[in-house]
Amino acid sequence: MSVTDLRAALTQPPPPRPAPVDAPVVGAAGRLVAGWMSEALVTRLAQVVFLAFVCFSAAGAWVKPLYDWDTVAYIAVAMEPDYSDPVALHRDAFALVEKHAAPAGKWYFFTAENEYKAHQYANAESFVSQLPMYRVKPAYVAAIRALSGVADPFVATKIIAVLSTLAAGLVVFWWMSRRGFAQAGLLLAPVMAIGGFFHMALLATPDMPYAALGLAGLYLLAKGRDWAAVPLLLAMFLMRVDAIILLFALLLAALAFRTAVKPLAVTFAVALAAYFAISAAAGHIGWWPHFVFSNIEIQNTLVGFAPEFSLKVYLEGIFRGVVLAVRDYNWPAMMLVFIVGGLMLVRGGVRFERRAAMLLFALLLAFGGKFVTFPLPVDRNYFLFVVATALVLLEAWKPRMDLAGLSRPGR
């Protein structure tokens, strides 16, 4: 053997050893699992997992609700037509909450957790001055009053939470099942959980019914049933009048994509007129005082509270919102993932239909519009936008998670 042959033999890499996954038994097991995980089975599994998550959330809303101070204010507004004396209204609203919260060990949370809550509990005039900020959710207040015939207002808020949680979940379930991406339920359940669905279900606030109505309206828009979407979008607006931002974003997107312009123009025009009427009837303090109250400094009383607009204070509120959003909440990171994911889908050859592109554009505008007008960054304020964006992207992608194809020869 020559020196060259010897050097070649010494430097030649050893033959590759078979990896464990190449072992016949492992390969056979993989083919067995792949054959068992059929498209039909994975689709049913995804649907069952998703519905289980929704039902669990609804059960939590009834069995273990979260106690939010806003509940007192919503109950007081629902009871308000039956009272002429603000002191009596204050007394009975807190007494009703005490009846339910004290046995659960949560009474301290409503009355003494911080200086603001202690002041509201001790001062009827200050408490009543806060109510205009809650009167501007007329549909939610009307729902509490409608159910008060069969349950007291506190229990009525729990009933609304349960029903709206089920409704929101069923709209998403219907959307993914009817539009051919039911297997994405395995992704939507964690997306909704991270986006705040379970937390929203436990709260007695208008956020979940607002989301349920909004998702239903957006689904009808996605299907091209524009006029059918109008009453649902208006009901969403009456649940939370700040939904005017989403309606305006939808109108701008409709104009840009030249689709559904008339129905969305009518929707926005009606909502805009109703916005001013509702605000005036509620005695709302106005956008800027509400901005300062929620984003700069809470006020014990809103009597005489009329701060002058300040660009410096506005920018401070925006900066505070950005810091809190990045530090404490999930929706900014989720939206970044969705934007990158959408770009990757386009690069991979996925073509978005005109309706889907319109909705994505509107939702992007709504995110920005919501934040710059009122940068309170809690996840529940953006949940509707997050889930709707996820649904539009997943419908275009239609991810498959079944493994049946792996069992075919050559795979």
Automatic annotation (TrEMBL):
Region Disordered: list its residue ranges: 1-22
Task: Give the transmembrane region(s).
Answer: 41-63, 155-175, 187-208, 228-257, 264-287, 329-346, 358-376
Residue ranges annotated as compositionally biased, kind Pro residues, are 12-21
Record flagged with keyword Transmembrane: yes
Could you list this entry's UniProt keywords, alphabetically sorted.
Membrane, Transmembrane, Transmembrane helix
- UniProt protein name: Glycosyltransferase RgtA/B/C/D-like domain-containing protein
